[in-house]
């Protein structure tokens, strides 16, 4: 039974990526270049997965009245379904990095052939730039998945559902990256999306952990500040390790928001030229 959701995920996510990429490239009204089609398709699949995960998380968390003992079939099923996504997404992110590398003109030398060791150089650059995200995906597959299906032993579906709802912010993150890719940073859409991204990331990823501690405190009759002292050390450690990258990414989002909403300084005006100095035809 466990293999069925995983096989389905292994078909759905790469299949949706290929379908989107081929549609963007072949549709007569679009005819996008491969690089653009790959990057947008990868963002689209990430957004679809996020919507599915957050919807499943909402259903699970609102269905579990007892936050420890209540179970919902969707918690286990979606966890297994999502495992192939994290494996696929590591490769999809590499493809995006590869095409960005090519577009910037670093992928070929003057003779048109890839430089010696070019692929490995791009791979190293990818791992250097996306190390935290690749590590996050690897931990989700190698650590969080076994813990959620084996170690929990059917307990705590409510908490798992809340964790799935952390994906609420992902569609806004993906749209923001697409807008930046196409130089739309100063549009109203980008500013509205940036605001929604910041708020959703704060609520669903950063404040999620204090909320889970508070929810357990309500269940156990403990004040919030006493909860860390009354749960196993490895639970606190796991929460801290999951929260740390969220705080780092939230810092980056806040830094980007400051740049976005900071008033732009007017460019210094160029000195006036004498009349007629640049008169005449221009190339």
| Proportion in helices | over 70%
Poorly predicted ranges: 106-116, 270-283
SSE succession: HHHHHHHHHH
Number of strands: 0
Summary, kept brief:
The longest helix is centred in the N-terminal third of the chain and has 31 residues, at 73-103. α2 runs antiparallel to α7, α3 runs antiparallel to α5 and α7 runs antiparallel to α8.
Characterization of the model:
α1 (3-26) packs antiparallel against α2 and α3 (73-103) runs antiparallel to α5. Helix content is 70%, strand content 0%. The protein has helices spanning 3-26, 34-63, 73-103, 118-129, 131-151, 157-164, 170-181, 188-206, 208-220, 233-261. The protein starts with a helix and ends in a 22-residue tail after the last helix. By secondary structure, the chain is mostly helical.
Please give the structural blueprint:
Blueprint: H1 3-26, H2 34-63, H3 73-103, H4 118-129, H5 131-151, H6 157-164, H7 170-181, H8 188-206, H9 208-220, H10 233-261
Please name the defining characteristics of this protein:
single chain; 283 residues; mainly alpha; 10 helices; disordered C terminus
């Amino acid at each position: 039974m466990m293999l069925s959701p995983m096989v389905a995920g292994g078909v759905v996510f790469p299949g949706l990526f290929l379908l989107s990429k081929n549609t963007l490239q072949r549709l007569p009204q679009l005819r996008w270049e491969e690089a653009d089609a790959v990057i947008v398709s990868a963002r689209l699949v990430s957004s679809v997965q996020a919507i599915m995960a957050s919807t499943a998380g909402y259903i699970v968390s609102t269905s579990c009245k007892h936050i420890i003992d209540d179970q919902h079939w969707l918690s286990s099923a979606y966890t297994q379904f999502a495992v192939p996504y994290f494996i696929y997404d590591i490769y999809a992110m590499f493809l995006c990095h590869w095409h960005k590398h090519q577009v910037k003109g670093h992928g070929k030398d003057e003779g048109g052939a890839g430089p010696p060791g070019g692929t490995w150089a791009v791979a190293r650059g990818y791992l250097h730039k996306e190390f935290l995200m690749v590590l996050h995906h690897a931990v989700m597959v190698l650590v969080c998945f076994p813990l959620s299906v084996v170690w929990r032993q059917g307990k705590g579906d409510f908490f798992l559902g809340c964790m799935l709802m952390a994906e609420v912010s992902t569609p806004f993150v993906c749209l923001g990256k697409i807008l930046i890719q196409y130089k739309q940073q100063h549009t109203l859409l980008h500013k509205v999306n940036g605001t929604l991204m910041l708020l959703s990331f704060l609520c669903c990823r950063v404040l999620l952990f204090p909320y889970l501690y508070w929810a357990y405190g309500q269940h156990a009759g403990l004040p919030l500040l006493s909860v860390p002292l009354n749960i196993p050390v490895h639970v606190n450690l796991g929460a801290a390790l999951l929260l740390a990258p969220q705080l780092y990414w939230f810092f980056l989002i806040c830094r980007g928001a400051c740049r976005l909403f900071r008033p732009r300084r007017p460019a210094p005006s160029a000195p006036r030229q004498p009349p007629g100095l640049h008169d005449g035809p221009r190339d």
